[in-house]
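Protein in question quoted for reference:
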Amino acid sequence: MTPQKDLFDVSGPTYLAYVNWNCPHHRRSVMASLVQGVYVLERDRQCNRQGPDARAPAWWRFFHFELRQVLIDAADGSIFGAVYVFQPPLHLLDPTAAASAPHYAVAFRGTITKKGSAKRDLELDLQLVRNGLEGKSRFRAAMQAIHDTLADAAGQHGRVWLAGHSLGSAIATLGAKTLVRAGAPALPTFLFNAPFVSAPVERIGDRRLRQGIRIANSFVTAGVAAVLQRGGGGGSVHEASFAVMAAWVPNLFVNSADPISAEYVGYFDHRRKMEAIGAGAVGRLATRNSVKDLLLGIGKGGSGGGGGCEPLHLFPSAVLTVNRVPSPDFKTAHGIHQWWRPDLSLECTAHYYT
């Protein structure tokens, strides 16, 4: 029996019969649905659901997308991503709204803890913690698909959108950062429950204790980074390298009860706090480094001319959307389904690196 979460008519945003591409809620809901389409593609594969029994197509066809390419991990044959092309019927095409729509969307799923993909997904989760996704075949396949899609878009980079959930958001992040480091235009990016590899300070109930821990951590991180810079041992991400990324402003969606992504709330709030207490220079140095990645990067050359091991989860800029609706459990707080609900209690703040 097909789980309800795989059935678009039961679990999907069927209320979005018309999509206004200028509406942030509509954009978020559609992009989350395309990511869900990748999850269901893989579950269709694992359950051998084919032809009329396949459940995945409804997740993109409802919004007038067609499947251009399925992305397969060479290590285990699992489906981890998809390239979609937007093909709305001419009689439904609103010229004003269509001007803001993507021509292509490249979406990546997160971890599936089922036998057919769990081993490989969990292995990549570990590589994510170690900042090691870049050398893996899944990322190389993802990057090739992004390059191919950009070539199909014939220079209209703003019409190629990236999206991912959890592990998939890390792949989308790395893809977008790789392009920007190479001098390419920043792509519109939608990151759902992106992993923040850090102690879950945001989950501490006492606000003053949270602030104290973060301030202390900033001074420790900045101190280690400064020592490594002076010693020439590598590891520290230089400001110029980090600032290059500032033009890329991803749409970052987190749940305040999700221990995997919630730390982004404190990460961006703390940057403002450090400026307010007159420690902006320390805050800026700390915000582009993590102690873990500093130590992992000692003696290693970095990318982008920075000379260090750039932490994947640290962003110069982002439009941060936080879901404050109470979640009964981890599965709900970290799940993709929450992002197309019409009754969300959201806080949205734009953060820019200066």
Q: What stands out?
A: Confidence is low (pLDDT under 50) at residues 298-308. The first helix runs from residue 8 to 11. The chain is about 40% helix and 15% strand. The CA atoms of residues 134 and 202 lie 28 Å apart.
